[in-house]
Design brief:
It is built from six helices and ten strands, in the order ααβααββαβββββββα. The protein is 31% helix and 35% strand. The radius of gyration is 17 Å and the shape is globular. The longest helix has 18 residues. With 204 residues, it is α+β, with helices and mostly antiparallel strands. It has one domain. The strands form two sheets. It has a seven-stranded antiparallel sheet.
């Protein structure tokens, strides 16, 4: 597995972790005060469609070739972890555009019976850079948690637990990450196909 995917799945190399200093800012993100006027203007301009097209193209390329060949987006497909990582330095976009797209995905996942379990921002020094991470962690709503299967009552994990992170370095866009982690044991209904989740993400 490449360092890129180790980073995406949380397996940061020890030498990279040692370079990271303690967080000097760590605070919750209050989504109730999200700048909706700016978001609605951005969404009304259909700027989100450009994100969707890039991610869809990368995913389709992966399905054809079995490898990530897109210059901007890498795809991860495995038994329990599926997602993508968007290298922001390949695109001419500002921080707020990436945060708007992340917020849009959150709103779409709410319609799929997900709830926000954690939303926070952490800023720390890594090597010679200042890195800020904006994170959303979503889980299926407990109200719609259980499903009856042939084997009995099990937990409906939908697509699994979902983590989104937007990372800046020295104030500039760096990475946008999306990862769905699912369980595979007797207590859970199998996660729904990742392709269905990609259809939600890439809806234009």
């Amino acid at each position: 597995m490449s360092k890129l995917w180790e980073f995406l799945s949380g397996g940061i190399q020890k030498k990279e972790a040692l370079k990271a200093g303690p967080a000097f800012i760590h605070e919750a993100i209050d989504l109730k005060s999200y700048p909706m006027e700016d978001f609605l203007r951005w969404h009304g301009d259909l700027a989100h469609q450009a994100f969707a097209k890039v991610i869809r193209t990368a995913y389709n390329d992966y399905l054809i070739t079995g490898t990530s060949t897109h210059p901007t987006v890498d795809i991860l497909i495995s038994t329990s972890s599926n997602g993508w990582i968007f290298r922001c330095n390949q695109e001419n976009r500002n921080n707020q555009e990436y945060r708007h797209f992340m917020y849009l995905l959150y709103q779409r996942l709410k319609e799929e019976k997900y709830i926000m379990n954690l939303s926070d921002m952490k800023s720390q020094q890594k090597a010679e850079s200042i890195e800020a991470t904006y994170r959303y962690y979503l889980k299926p709503s407990i109200r719609n948690r259980f499903a009856v299967s042939a084997e009995g009552k099990k937990t409906d994990q939908i697509f699994g637990n979902i983590t989104m992170e937007f990372i800046t370095r020295d104030g500039l866009p760096h990475l946008l990450k999306f990862l769905a982690n699912s369980y595979s044991d007797q207590n859970y209904v199998d996660a729904r196909p990742f392709s269905d989740l990609m259809d939600i993400i890439c809806e234009e």
